[in-house]
Specification:
heterodimer, A: 620 residues, alpha+beta, Penicillin-binding protein 2a (Domain 2), Beta-lactamase, 2 domains, seven-stranded mixed beta sheet, B: 416 residues, mainly alpha, three-stranded antiparallel beta sheet, globular
Chain lengths: 620, 416
């Protein structure tokens, strides 16, 4: 069996044993390799995959926000951000064998190049020495890197970053909102349409070596980023700018605490401008106070005062509770209502006034008498029909529904309060919508901000359907709406808003001057001065709600004086911008009304026309 | 037998005669060896180059510094293999003390192993002083010592210049130089010393050393080795890390985990030549100690099979020589060389597959390592020479001392 040659000094048995053992071991190791490559793999393969790949996020570009005319309100730009990787930097310093003093010297030099305070930079790097990314400077030029490279300092780099850019500064800030440091929307449209605008980041999965350098010859898993969609708003940047200019100027002039302005297209409910004072710059969100960022036009309801009166008189006319030419026997020196012990007074003792003039002159006594006749429930129905107490449904977040207490819970005195515009809370947006009803012939529009969305290539993918006026709820018949509009057109001519000096267009509207409650008591020195109106009277194109809170009483506080003229300016300038033709002379009130009007003088209607003629002759 | 068939199939032998015909075998023995050696060296050139490739963004193929250096040494190694293979190995066999090349070899090796330990002369790499700077190249004295020991033991065990049946004047005298070299090496290179000890043990057993001599010697040697391991905490840690490398994935276990990841990330079929990822900075010592992991990652199980079959081929040649009716020196030397190569391959592969504690041993003929490759080639050339030059009996007339007479009556030999 054993054909080995045995010899005196050699034992083939042992030799065979040794060699067979080695061969067996080698064969066993083949088995071991096979095991590691198949069944033994489960534990290790995941770690191998993890360490051998890196996933690079391909950032999606946030969509642009356009105004209705195609101006960019918010865009995305790619900038180079200079960053420091402190962990790597310090490890390199240590590898170079630098002493702490030398390291400090390097950092001082670096601070010099970066135009930073050296102690500040040192502290920053110390604090975040374990971090891999410390943002130093946005929008940095590559020149920095060259200089830093010459200093032989590692761990400083540039990385492209998508940054939100608001080319128009603070324009429409409250509509746009803003984004946080991570590029996600925090407020306004940026927050509401976060999903649409943000898109979806892609990723590139690359095999990498131990020093995290990608191996580009390897097949990659590539998921292209889905860029964000663009959004077109109904906001018109020009009208928005006009509104903001007038609002800021007024608030500053009257040292007001705050103010809001909403411009709306009464035919479609498109919001053309929405402004708040004080405002902020969405580019520097962190520099603004939260109360500045609050979009008060929708979130801060207030007691409107007299601006509520058209929405009581209108239904009263429609329901034949009264007539335009009904004369109310207003007593001189105050009206003592059976509903309230405290008498109701007007600023001026008019004597008997027609319903027409009750509205034009904003007579509290006349309104109280009308309120007594209507009763709680009909008053409530009238106001509620105009959408007060309900959210308008605008796309922005945090809209307040206001407050309209059901009639069943009213006390008797609440009737007197309600007809004067107290005992209920409304938002500027609700006021603008309610005025649109009279401007468009009796339909309650739905205010909205979104016009369309475009895909990243700029093609239209979704147009928010225009609201057909005929589909909207008719809350008051067109005749009555036209009647009320005609009455309101008298307000700038004969009524409380005579300080509106607009000559080009016939405007209509209603002023309001409301006491502000502080801790449940009406304060004699703080007011809300408002004007809600539209124009041109003949074919209304715009409605504006212009509210000023707490103007300095020593300067003025009447709605007609404080808010009327700037609101008139907004309308006039915007209508001119929209190339709306100038209005003809305002029609006279119907003769049966004119008969009973308070100190009626048809000449006042000609005044505007004569001004126009004067201007024309001056041009010659 | 299956192994033999596999090996011989590599030679492409399709003869009319039965493959098992002994005459054909003997003719082809060194061919098999040459093919295996060339195969391993070429695999080494390929894999060292592949493992040394780095990602620098340059996509055109070029020899890396390490790959080209290895190519040069591989060329020199192959030349050495054939030159030595054409020599008659019996020239080494001499009974003179002064002119004995084997003893000179041993002396030079011991000297080299000694001076490498002197700081300033030995070059330190990775914290171990294992290299001697020799002009343009470096030499690892432990490689020299390893093969000198094999030569010395083969000569001593076959020629019996001293009476090995005696304990002090025979056995201990034989072990003294081996022990000395091992001790010099163990200071910086525990793995090679252990390899020398293991290989010496197989040779001593095969050389009919009295078993009780070994029984007396092995326990103290083991105790010494264990003590040596216990003295340095890191050695003990290394000894146990392989049981659970995941316990210390960042420190001791790192090498082992990365090696395991190479096997798993390659899978059964491998990523393909040059496509390995673990070599790109993850796997340490990817061109030397852990090159087997790179082979497996890139070539899969096929690479492992190829490598191991080529080693089996060398073992087969050694075994065939050992089986021959011929001189004891040739048989002993062939066995020693085969055993050394086989053991080193087994230990290296076992380390790479995390089957035994980590040892810094190269994969013979494949790992990059300059002088070591040439010396290994020379040793295999010697095996080639033995296979080629068949001496019927020892050419030397008589051993220095007469064998002790009462050897035969003890009946060790007669039992076969």
């Amino acid at each position: 069996m054993d054909d080995c040659q045995d010899s005196q000094f050699f034992s083939p048995r042992w030799a065979r044993l040794v060699i067979v053992t080695i061969v067996a071991a080698l064969l066993a190791l083949i088995g071991r390799v096979g095991y590691l490559q198949t069944y033994g793999r489960e534990k290790t393969i995941r770690q191998a995959e993890r360490q051998q790949h890196m996933t690079e996020t391909l950032f999606a570009r946030r969509g642009t926000i356009y105004d209705a005319t195609g101006n960019v309100l918010a865009g995305t730009v790619q900038t180079q951000t200079l960053f420091i990787d402190p962990k790597f930097m310090f490890s390199q310093f240590i590898e170079q064998g630098l002493t702490p003093a030398q390291i400090r010297e390097r950092i001082d030099k670096l601070a010099g190049v970066l135009e930073m305070d050296s102690t500040e930079l040192e502290n920053l790097l110390d604090e975040r020495s374990e971090s891999r990314f410390v943002k130093i400077r946005a929008n940095a030029s590559p020149e920095y890197l060259k200089v830093i490279h010459d200093l032989k300092i590692d761990g400083v780099g540039l990385t492209p970053i998508h940054e939100r850019y608001y080319p128009m500064g603070s324009l429409a800030a409250h509509v746009l909102g803003g984004v946080g440091a991570d590029g996600h929307g925090l407020e306004g449209i940026e927050l509401v349409l976060e999903k649409t605008l943000a898109g979806k980041d892609g990723e590139k999965r690359t095999r990498k070596d131990a020093r995290r350098r990608g191996i580009y010859v390897a097949a990659d898993d590539y998921l292209a980023p889905l860029h964000g969609q663009h959004v077109v708003l109904t906001i018109d940047a020009n009208i928005q700018m006009i509104a903001e200019q007038e609002l800021n100027a007024t608030c500053q002039k009257y040292r007001a605490k705050s103010g809001e302005c909403v411009v709306i297209d009464p035919r479609s409910g498109e919001i053309l401008a929405l402004a708040n004072y004080p405002t902020f710059n969405p580019q520097f969100l962190e520099d603004s106070k939260p109360e500045w960022r609050s979009n008060r036009a929708l979130v801060a309801p207030f007691e409107p005062g007299s601006t509520i009166k058209p929405y009581i008189v209108g239904p009263a006319l429609a329901w034949n509770v009264t007539r335009q030419d009904e004369v109310w026997p207003l007593p001189r020196g105050g009206y003592r209502s059976s509903l309230r012990s405290k008498p109701v007074t007007d600023v001026y003792n008019y004597g008997p006034l027609s319903t027409w003039d009750v509205l034009v002159k904003s007579s509290n006594m006349g309104m109280t008498m009308l309120g007594e006749r209507m009763g709680k429930q009909r008053l409530y129905d009238a106001i509620a029909a105009f959408g007060f107490g309900h959210r308008t449904g605008i796309e922005l977040k945090g809209e307040d529904p206001g407050m309209l207490i059901p009639a069943s819970r009213w006390g008797n005195a609440d009737v007197v309060s309600t007809v004067q515009g107290y005992h209920l809370l409304v938002t500027p947006l609700q006021l603008a919508r309610a005025m649109s009803v009279y401007a468009n012939g009796g339909r309650l529009v739905k205010p909205h901000l979104l016009k369309a969305t475009l895909n990243p290539e700029g093609q239209l993918i979704n147009r928010y359907p225009d609201q057909q006026l005929s589909d909207l709820p008719q809350i008051i018949d067109a005749t009555t709406a036209a009647e009320v509009r005609r009455i309101l057109a008298d307000v700038p001519v004969r009524g409380t808003a005579r300080s509106i000096t607009t000559t080009t267009y016939n405007l209509f509207g209603k002023t309001g001057t409301a006491h502000i409650t502080k801790n449940g008591n009406y304060n004699e020195s703080s007011y809300t001065s408002s004007f809600v109106g539209g124009g041109p009277y003949e074919n209304p194109r715009l409605v504006v709600a212009f509210i000023i809170h707490e103007p300095d009483k020593s300067l003025d506080y009447h709605g007609g004086k404080v808010s009327g003229p700037p609101a008139g300016n907004i309308l006039e300038r915007s209508l001119a911008y929209l190339q709306v033709p100038a209005s003809p002379q305002l029609t006279l009130p119907p003769p049966q009304v004119a008969r009973v009007l308070f100190s009626f003088d048809p000449k006042v209607y000609a005044r505007r026309l004569s001004k126009l003629t004067n201007l024309a002759s001056a041009d010659d | 037998m299956r192994v033999m068939e596999e090996v011989s199939s590599l030679t492409g032998a399709t003869s009319d005669k039965s493959f098992m015909d002994a005459s054909i075998y003997r003719l082809r023995l060194w061919d098999i060896l040459s093919l295996c050696v060339l195969g391993l060296v070429f695999l080494g050139i390929l894999m060292v180059q592949s493992a040394a490739v780095n990602v620098t963004g340059d996509l055109t193929w070029q020899w890396t510094a390490r790959g080209s250096k290895h190519l040069l040494f591989a060329g020199l190694g192959i030349i050495t293999f054939f030159v030595v293979g054409n020599w008659d190995y019996q020239r080494l066999n001499s009974l003179s003390i002064k002119r004995n090349p084997i003893l000179w070899c041993l002396g030079v090796a011991a000297f080299a192993c000694l001076i490498v330990l002197i700081p300033g002369i030995g070059t330190e790499v990775n914290g171990a002083r294992r290299w001697l700077q020799l002009g343009v190249t470096q030499i690892q004295p432990s490689e020299l010592g390893k093969w000198a020991t094999v030569l010395f033991l083969a000569w001593c065990l076959s020629q019996r210049p001293i009476d090995l049946d005696r304990f002090w004047s025979g056995f201990v005298l034989l072990l003294a130089p081996v022990g000395l070299i091992s001790l010099l090496i163990v200071v910086e290179d525990f793995g090679t010393a252990a390899l020398i000890g293991l290989c010496s043990l197989t040779m001593l057993l095969t050389g009919r050393i009295k078993l009780w001599h070994l029984m007396v010697t092995i326990p103290p040697a083991l105790v010494g080795a264990v003590g040596f391991i216990l003295v340095q905490p890191y050695r003990l840690r290394r000894m146990t890390t392989f049981l659970d490398p995941w316990a210390s994935p960042k420190t001791d276990g790192y090498h082992l985990i990365q090696s395991l990841l190479s096997f798993s990330s390659g899978g059964l079929w491998g990523r393909g030549l040059g496509n390995g990822v673990q070599k790109l900075g993850y796997l340490p010592e990817d061109t030397t100690d852990f090159i087997f992991a790179v082979i497996c990652e890139e070539l899969g199980l096929f690479g492992a099979l190829l490598t191991i079959i080529l080693y089996l081929g060398i073992l087969y040649v050694a075994w065939q020589v050992v089986r021959q009716k011929r001189d004891a020196f040739g048989r002993m030397l062939a066995f020693g060389i085969g055993s050394m190569i086989g053991l080193q391959a087994v230990i290296n592969i076992a380390v790479a597959t995390v089957s035994v504690p980590t040892k810094g041993l190269a994969l013979p003929l494949i790992s990059a390592g300059g002088s070591g490759l040439i010396i290994t080639c020379a040793a295999l050339g010697l095996l080639c020479s033995i296979a080629r030059h068949e001496h019927a009996a020892d050419t030397l007339q008589a051993p220095l001392r007469q064998p002790v007479r009462h050897r035969l009556p003890r009946g060790i030999i007669l039992e076969t």
